[in-house]
Structures are given as C-alpha cells and as structure tokens.
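Here comes just one.
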Amino acid sequence: MMQILIDNQNDLIRLNEELENKIEQALVETLKNTGYGTDYEISISVVDAEEIKQLNAEYRGNDNVTDVLSFPLFEREYIPEEGMLGDIVICSERVKEQAKEFGHSEEREFVYLAVHSMLHLLGYDHMEEDEKIEMRSKEKEIMKNLGIFK
C-alpha cells in the first residue's frame, strides 16, 4: 500500500486533504502505468524558492530556482518491489508561477510535478531526446488517465 510522507514547509500553498488525495492517486497511477505495484513509500517536501535553489546548487551544481527535484534511491534497473523509492521536493512559488504561465490551476500543476518527479524516481529522464520523448509520452498518458488535461 502506498505511503506518502508530506512535509509542507511553507504557507504559500496549503496541501489540503483533497489535494493530498489527488497527489496519491497520481503517484499510484504513475506506478501502475509503468508496471509497478504500490507497496512504496515516497517523501514529498514543499519548500520555498530559496530552499530549492540551495538544494539545486548543492546536489546538481545549478544555482537556480527550479520547480521540482527528485532524489531517487535506485536506478531504473534495480527498483525493488517495495519500500522507500526516494524524495520529491516541490517549490511552491514555481507551482504558482507555472500554473499562471500555462493557464491552468495550481492543483493541476502540483499533480503534474508529482507525476514528473515520480517518473524520475522510477528512473525516467529527459536529458537525451529519446528519453525525453518516452518520459513526456508517459506524463501525457498518466495525466489523461487521471482525467487532468491542460
């Protein structure tokens, strides 16, 4: 059974029970869509721009604010059948900015970033063009299955 540990470290976006349920549904759908079961634990932290910038600089050598960071515990070939998969860190300011920029709700942006980051925890990436095509295709399929469209 899926276990999600959420640490909302700021008040810019409050994660109510409804949004937490949608995030859980999105993560479960991502696991099912990629051929995994749901006996996993995932940690999600919601942080401000300064915190994610600091994490991005420390772990990726990129001194910029980003929307989401993923910290997988395993490589794609070695993902176990259960247990902790890793950590997701989402920037609340970027959720608000990108929702406005793309003309959709903050809820939709938050769910999309959770799906995107969960795919990273499962070993998907978008550094090479073929990887990017595969990952974007999965994202679209999962969001469609959730009934969440742009």
The chain has a mean pLDDT of 93. The longest strand covers residues 83-91. The helical segments are 17-33, 49-60, 92-102, 106-121, 129-145. The radius of gyration is 14 Å.
